């Protein structure tokens, strides 16, 4: 018995958390992460208590293969899973990557609904044979095999039942039921799992999993309903990252089970105090800021604005809070440090916030912290978090050295900018429609590129006119997407740095694509 099956056999009320931030989440347009970022997120997921990490789709590119292999090698407690379409080549490649893990898993899938069967043009019988052949092959390589009938919730019941039985007979140990297009609803989600467990031959010997997308905003409810119906694995992503409206959000299902254990009596292994930190890291590295009113991890999730609410909170926090901010890793103290705080105090504060930084990295944050404390009266946790998230990487080719803008009611606005490019300073003055446009034009004049600005977003980190602005920039060039983020009390400086950060990542992508190591050769949507 593989460790995942054994865990559920031991504790029938235990729900396995299968995180697919690095596979389904990373597939969402613009969310691509670098190799180092994938390793970092995998480590955080492992430490947080995720049971299974879907680390990528190894056949998709050399980059995906390398990331899954490295994550497998570094894994501590989690099972490491890779995705493979229903063909032997994909499955072999997946095994080559995951086999390094202490606990590896192969996840293979095929689209079983009429719409998906039509794409490879397979008859029901031909597809049934393919499922038997591929799951058998995967099981010969690995004793932990997950099989998914993609678009299960739009597959005819008889055919779904037939294919699930074939996969179980061929050796699948987990059967995942994807609601690929977010089409199902809670009652149906629970019934489908209940019926599969009751009617499928061998159904009682495997773990049923639920994998919901959020197109109708019901992913969390559908996942929890599936658990009610007997599913013992929830597939989810941090912040609900994923294509279109995203996947089930890990933080939502985990906290729902924790807070409403009275009516949702299931447990997970997740250390919920680590939620906030990983949420912020995923938002930064994927370049997908979290919406302010997002459940659990949104900036306003624990903020109380109205007089009645604030009054109630002061008398008894339970009047308007159903969970404590500390339970998800939000520290209670908001005013933390000032310009007299030293490096040791900053290190301790960072540690308390979940960042273990030392050496050059600590020094870099410290220098920027001091500069901020000189300019800003009060430095809050949120400010320090923004400093951490806005760090450049040592290998960056471009660095902002100097920026002065002229703006106001009289056009033209202009930017005088110096960039250090591969160690050499280059200066230019450019005009534009406003200070940000002028600054971006100046950067474009110095760095030759044809990237299109896909996203430009500004948020105030804290209250007050001296608040830092966090800026996110996403660029697209020849199908390659890259995001950058920065924070500063000067919005134009933050914008310039975010743009430069995105360009630095684009340059890396250009290079790796040219070397052939990160071409998205195949799409998981081509199911065979
Ligand atoms: O949504 C989906 O169907 C998937 C499968 C590959 C499991 O992500
Ligand atoms: Zn999916």
From TrEMBL:
Q: Region Regulatory domain: list its residue ranges.
A: 399-528
Please give the biological process terms from Gene Ontology that the record holds.
L-leucine biosynthetic process
Please report the stretch or stretches of sequence annotated as the Pyruvate carboxyltransferase domain.
Answer: 15-276
Q: Which Pfam families match?
A: HCS_D2 (PF22617), HMGL-like (PF00682), LeuA_dimer (PF08502)
Q: Which keywords does this chain's UniProt record carry?
A: Acyltransferase, Amino-acid biosynthesis, Branched-chain amino acid biosynthesis, Cytoplasm, Leucine biosynthesis, Manganese, Metal-binding, Transferase
Q: Which superkingdom does the taxonomy of this entry point to?
A: Bacteria
Q: Which GO terms describe its cellular component?
A: cytosol
EC code: 2.3.3.13
Q: What class of enzyme is it?
A: transferase
Is the keyword Disulfide bond in the record? no
Enzymatic reactions = 3-methyl-2-oxobutanoate + acetyl-CoA + H2O = (2S)-2-isopropylmalate + CoA + H(+)
User: Which GO-annotated molecular functions does the record name?
Assistant: 2-isopropylmalate synthase activity; acetyl-CoA C-acetyltransferase activity; manganese ion binding
Its pathway is: Amino-acid biosynthesis; L-leucine biosynthesis; L-leucine from 3-methyl-2-oxobutanoate: step 1/4
PANTHER family reported in the protein's UniProt record: 2-ISOPROPYLMALATE SYNTHASE 1, CHLOROPLASTIC-RELATED, HOMOCITRATE SYNTHASE-RELATED
So what family is this one in? Belongs to the alpha-IPM synthase/homocitrate synthase family. LeuA type 1 subfamily.
Question: What function does the entry list?
Answer: Catalyzes the condensation of the acetyl group of acetyl-CoA with 3-methyl-2-oxobutanoate (2-ketoisovalerate) to form 3-carboxy-3-hydroxy-4-methylpentanoate (2-isopropylmalate).
Q: What is this protein called?
A: 2-isopropylmalate synthase
Q: Provide the species name.
A: Palleronia marisminoris
Gene name as annotated: leuA_1
